[in-house]
Design goal:
Blueprint: E1 2-7, H1 15-30, E2 35-39, H2 43-54, E3 60-66, H3 68-78, E4 84-90, E5 101-102, H4 110-114, E6 117-126, E7 129-131, E8 134-138, H5 139-149, H6 158-168, E9 175-181, E10 184-190, E11 192-196, E12 218-223, H7 228-240, E13 253-258, E14 260-265, E15 269-273, E16 276-280, E17 283-296, E18 301-302
Parallel strand pairs: 1-2, 1-3, 3-4, 4-17
Antiparallel strand pairs: 5-18, 6-7, 6-17, 8-11, 8-15, 9-10, 9-14, 11-12, 12-13, 14-17, 15-16
Helix pairs in contact: 2-3, 5-6
């Protein structure tokens, strides 16, 4: 099997290239692996490179060495190819996808990576795009955008997102959305919408606590407008993944599991797809059960299975 390490040189403020490349080369040579290293140039270039390599039919494991956005770029190139496996060496700012597994630190252990067994995981498809972890629309996308702009050596991971949330939430921005879920149509003014395959977003917010990568379902959650102390209280619950256990939260939160939906923004909105931000237009979402062979490092285990 070919081991292809797809490295985002900018990930982790350059840590992907400065710290991991030498370890990858050393281990690959000592194990006499059939391997290669590809440095990414752009999102589209990464996806096209992976797709061309997967088209060869050769059995290959593609290691996304970077953040959640790099995972999405690699995923988008290998969906539909049975000969291609997805692996992840996380070194981004949030690293939310690997939080769905126990012992997420094992993803940085290259020996455990080489001993990985594959697990068939679901993928969300909308339009011509894919997501393996989560799609966020509304204020949580605004927070992700703000977090990406915060430059601080003292703030990392969830601390950056908490700071961004405290910057964005006082603006009390709301988004009017139309949801078509199983033919039931709703229009709501909301703070945010999460369309989830995995549980985590925002560098450790357990926003979709019932989500699983293998259940064949999309978890849809939207939050109605909140303010004041209630907002801060619900933000803490949302971070811990305990919002569904709080009866007061039920007035503000809808949480639905489905295999497909259509979501229409009635005012302009952006979308955050596995950490990557851009404009959002009406899309129909569906789950592709077991669409990708994912390499789970030795000793790791899916949390919600």
């Amino acid at each position: 099997m070919k081991h292809i390490f797809v490295v985002n040189p900018a990930a982790g403020s350059g840590a992907a290239e400065s710290e991991l490349l030498s370890r990858i080369r050393s281990l690959a040579k000592s194990k006499e692996l059939d391997f290669e290293i590809h440095r990414t140039l752009s999102k589209d270039e990464t996806t096209e490179y992976v797709r061309k390599r997967a088209c060869s039919g050769e059995e290959a494991r593609f290691y996304a060495v970077g953040g959640d956005g790099t995972i999405n770029d690699v995923l988008s190139g290998l969906v539909g190819f049975e000969n291609a496996q997805l692996a992840v060496v996380p070194c981004g700012s949030g690293n939310d996808f690997v939080r769905n597994f126990k012992h997420k630190e094992y993803f940085l252990d290259l020996d455990r990576q080489l001993a990985a067994e594959t697990l068939d995981i679901d993928v969300i498809k909308f339009g011509e795009r894919y997501a393996v972890n989560m799609v966020n629309i509304g204020v949580d996308c605004d927070i992700a955008d703000r977090a990406a702009r915060i430059k601080s050596d003292r703030l990392k991971g969830s601390a950056t997102y908490l700071k961004a949330a405290l910057d964005i939430l006082p603006r009390r921005t709301t988004y009017r959305m139309r949801y078509d879920i199983g033919g039931e149509i709703r229009e709501e003014d909301v703070l945010l919408t999460a369309i989830a395959n995995g549980m985590y977003c925002g560098g450790g917010f357990k926003s979709s606590p019932m989500a699983s990568l293998t259940d064949g379902l999309i978890d849809v959650e939207y939050v109605r407008p909140l303010k004041g102390f209630t907002l801060l209280r619900m933000l803490a619950k949302y971070h811990e993944g305990k919002q569904l256990q709080d009866k007061e939260a039920w007035k503000y939160i809808e949480y639905i599991q489905t295999d497909r939906l259509t979501l229409t923004p009635l005012i302009p909105a952006n979308v955050c797809v596995d950490g990557e931000i851009g404009p959002y237009e009406e899309s129909s979402f569906e789950v592709l059960p077991g669409a990708v062979r994912f390499a789970v490092p030795e000793g790791c285990e899916l949390i919600n299975s």
